[in-house]
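Title: Comparing notes on inverse folding

I've been comparing how different people in this forum approach sequence design from structure. To keep things fair, I'm posting one structure and asking everyone to reply with a full sequence. Here's the target:
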């Protein structure tokens, strides 16, 4: 067996987006495509002697083939060992946990997360550093620049290895430890939450449904919910990870998780419902005929964090992505702790978590997490809610309604226009930027514009700067419209329009969301001329 040096040339377009490099599976199947990117990562990281690399993915189509390639490249690069999830499986949060626990240099996670899978679907790859978190912008940019200068990559010609049984084997001389993908993660969850209280809840007849959508959360949910916590067998549905997610779209929102939503609205519905995405870092929380907005979920968990042993000592701060509603800010105010506002994408929370400035973080895109790892964490949020239900009693709806009663309600919705023409999308944003200076003071429907800008962020820890992170139009009553283009899609462009309106009066807390936001929705369309630019009169997805 020997290390081969293979001649290659740069492949354009390997710049990672909001969360890694995501492309159609067919793109990754092109000769040298995966190899080039991985060589770009390894070259950027430098020496690997004595270092551990963590490897795993969400089990989607092409995962197994990619893993064999990366193992051979890791061997050629001189890593001391690779920790590989059995069957090539590691959820994104579990990978983050394993990197931290075992002192790895970092990890490669194979996932296109909430994007559809299968031979016609998407594939993805991202690098996480020693803190377990997504590579910061400066590093992903360096990797990208390196991919533009490649002339060769190095790979071992060793045969494929068995990745399905646990134990240690070698690729060339490099040991590969095939580990239980669930164990380390489950142990961490047990330290954070009151498992005894949750066990008593289930023993008392409480029921739940967790929809794994045939993605990677299944084995974790079964082991922890049904195994360790005693939830009735069958509480986890669609629990077997499949390469094409069984045709489901594992992006947990009420549109895609229709089986769960129907179940939660049917007579005899379980007391609690939840779903997760392709790589198990997202969560959707559902009560009986009641969907919890992700921004509200973050605020509720922050306000009640003391119920969980892992957070009983209080929170240092909260961080949320800019488009996420400001429900969490009100909780931070009440707790007397700071609330940080970052650009979209979990990588921006890393410095705040590392510096101990934030304890809980969240995004409106069904993402919640904490300083226990450096990724958002779907099952963690589910366990947090179960811990809360076990301690407080009542229903999901009761908990959220009481929260609104105390803090007021931030009506919130996101409208996505998917697969639109990229040039039209750029023009729309360009035209909006030109309009910004003239918007303040203008009256629209019953709103008046207070200010309008393009969100910029300077990281309070390392001083790094990010510009053009979303156009914001703020109204005098605190309402807000935000526009940005997605950085995770693989087909055309996706315009996201985020709408938020605050309502203090409890008598006004139970209006259907789209109705409560109708005035803002109309303004959002007319200010940006969405219909004119995109040719669409309606969004493709509303969450
Ligand atoms: C989307 C979400 C963002 C999230 C990202 C990755 O990004 O808006 O909040 O962090 O997906 O989530 P974008 O650029 O498409 O809006 V995941 O679960 O796909 O890793
Ligand atoms: Co995800």
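Reply #1:
Here's my take.
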């Amino acid at each position: 067996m020997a290390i081969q040096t293979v001649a290659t040339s740069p492949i354009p377009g390997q710049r990672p987006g909001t969360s890694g490099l995501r492309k159609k599976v067919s793109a990754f199947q092109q000769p040298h495509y995966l190899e080039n990117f991985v060589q770009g990562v390894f070259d950027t990281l430098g020496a690997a002697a004595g270092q551990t690399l963590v490897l795993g993915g969400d089990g989607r189509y092409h995962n197994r083939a990619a893993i064999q390639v990366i193992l051979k490249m890791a061997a050629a690069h001189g890593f001391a060992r690779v920790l590989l999830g059995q069957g090539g499986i590691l959820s994104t949060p579990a990978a983050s946990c394993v990197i931290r626990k075992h002192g790895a240099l970092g990890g490669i996670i194979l996932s296109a997360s909430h994007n559809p899978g299968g031979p016609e679907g998407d594939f993805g790859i991202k690098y996480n550093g020693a803190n377990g978190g997504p590579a910061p912008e400066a590093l992903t940019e360096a990797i990208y620049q390196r991919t533009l200068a490649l002339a060769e990559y190095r790979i071992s010609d060793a045969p494929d290895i068995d990745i399905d049984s646990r134990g240690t084997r070698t690729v060339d001389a490099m040991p590969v430890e095939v580990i239980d993908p669930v164990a380390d993660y489950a142990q961490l969850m047990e330290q954070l939450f009151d498992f005894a209280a949750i066990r008593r809840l289930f023993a008392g007849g409480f029921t739940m449904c967790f929809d794994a959508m045939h993605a990677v959360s299944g084995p974790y949910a079964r082991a922890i919910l049904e195994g360790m916590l005693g939830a009735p067998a069958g509480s986890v549905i669609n629990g077997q990870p499949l390469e094409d997610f069984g045709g489901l779209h594992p992006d947990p929102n009420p549109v895609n998780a229709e089986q769960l939503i129907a179940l939660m609205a049917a007579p005899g519905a379980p007391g609690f419902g939840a779903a997760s995405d392709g790589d198990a870092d997202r969560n959707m929380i559902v009560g009986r005929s009641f969907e919890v907005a992700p921004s509200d979920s973050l605020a509720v968990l922050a306000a009640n964090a003391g119920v969980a042993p892992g957070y009983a000592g209080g929170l240092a701060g909260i961080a949320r992505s800019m488009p996420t509603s400001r429900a969490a800010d009100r909780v931070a105010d009440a707790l007397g702790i700071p609330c940080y506002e970052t650009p979209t994408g979990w990588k921006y929370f890393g410095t705040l978590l590392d510096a101990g400035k934030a304890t809980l973080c969240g995004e409106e895109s069904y993402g919640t997490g904490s300083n226990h790892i450096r990724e958002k964490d779907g099952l963690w949020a589910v366990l947090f809610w179960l811990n809360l239900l076990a301690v407080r009693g009542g229903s999901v709806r009761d908990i959220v309604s009481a929260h609104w009663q105390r803090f007021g309600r931030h009506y919130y919705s996101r409208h996505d226009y998917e697969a639109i023409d990229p040039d039209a999308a750029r023009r729309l944003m360009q035209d909006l930027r030109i309009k910004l200076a003239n918007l303040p003071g203008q009256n629209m429907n019953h709103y008046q514009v207070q200010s309008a800008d393009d969100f910029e962020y300077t990281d309070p820890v390392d001083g790094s700067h990010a510009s053009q992170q979303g156009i914001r139009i703020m109204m005098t009553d605190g309402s807000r419209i935000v526009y940005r283009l997605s950085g995770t899609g693989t087909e055309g462009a996706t315009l996201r329009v985020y709408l938020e309106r605050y309502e203090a009066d409890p008598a006004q807390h139970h209006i259907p969301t789209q109705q409560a936001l109708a005035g803002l929705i109309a303004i959002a369309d007319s200010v940006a001329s969405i219909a004119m630019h995109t040719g669409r009169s309606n969004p493709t997805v509303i969450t």
